[in-house]
Amino acid sequence: MLSKNRIEAFSDGVIAIIITIMVFDLKIPELAEHFTDAELHKALWGIVPKLAAYTLSFIVVAIMWLNHHSLFDKIPHSTSKLVWYNAFLLFGMSLIPLPTAFLASHPFLPEASMLYGLVLGFTALGFTFLRAYAQGKAKLISYNQLVQRSNIIGTSLYLLSAPLAFVSVYLSFAIFIGIPLWYFLPDKFQK
Asked: Which residue ranges does UniProt annotate as crossing the membrane (predicted)?
């Protein structure tokens, strides 16, 4: 069985690679040798959706990394099942660059928002399972109703954003932005 520290180190490495892969999609557009101001502005404006999708995904991954660190800081030791729940979470997180790139290239395409919502929902589900195992069956940490409720709400909203994308991508965007904002609120406002 892996030690708790090995699980954290591996997780940190995977998360660092995820962020690195996402940033590779950010490229300054090529311009002709003699470009006009209008061409420059058009080219720079063209990278705004990519930068917005990257920023949103970076914030989501950062929140997951911080929550992962907070969770493992409280866990006294690992179990073999904990390793696999963590691997499930990391698998979901490793998929995030794919819908990020799709959303960046086609921000108003319902299928792009749907895929983004499904992958983030799948990843949030992985985190919910990991925390539920640590709090429940394994009794590695004490039960925290507020955190568990936040995890379930976030997971449900991400999964709901997938079909909502076909009603309005703006509804999905509101969920994609709203969930990270929720995690920035002080605990007293989340009760």
From this structure: 7-24, 44-66, 87-109, 115-134, 155-185
In sign, the C-alpha dihedral spanning 134, 135, 137, 140 is positive
State the chain's mean pLDDT as an integer.
Answer: 92
Tokens of 21: 């892969």
Report whether 16 contacts 93 (CB < 8 A). no
- Residue 186: its pLDDT value, please? 62
SS (H, E, C) the chain: CCCHHHHHHHHHHHHHHHHHHHHCCCCCCCCCCCCCHHHHHHHHHHCHHHHHHHHHHHHHHHHHHHHHHHHHHHCCCCCHHHHHHHHHHHHHHHCCHHHHHHHHHCCCCHHHHHHHHHHHHHHHHHHHHHHHHHHCCCCCCCCCHHHHHHHHHHHHHHHHHHHHCCCCHHHHHHHHHHHHHHHHCCHHHHC
Q: Is the distance from CB of 131 to CB of 147 less than 8 angstroms?
A: yes
Report how far residue 126's alpha carbon sits from residue 72's, in angstroms, rounded to the nearest whole number.
Answer: 15
Contact (CB, 8 A) for 124 and 158: yes
Please, are residues 82 and 139 in contact by the beta-carbon 8 Å criterion? no
Tokens, residue 90: 């990391």
pLDDT at res. 188: 46
pLDDT at 63 over 90: yes
In the predicted model, is pLDDT for residue 116 greater than 90?
A: yes
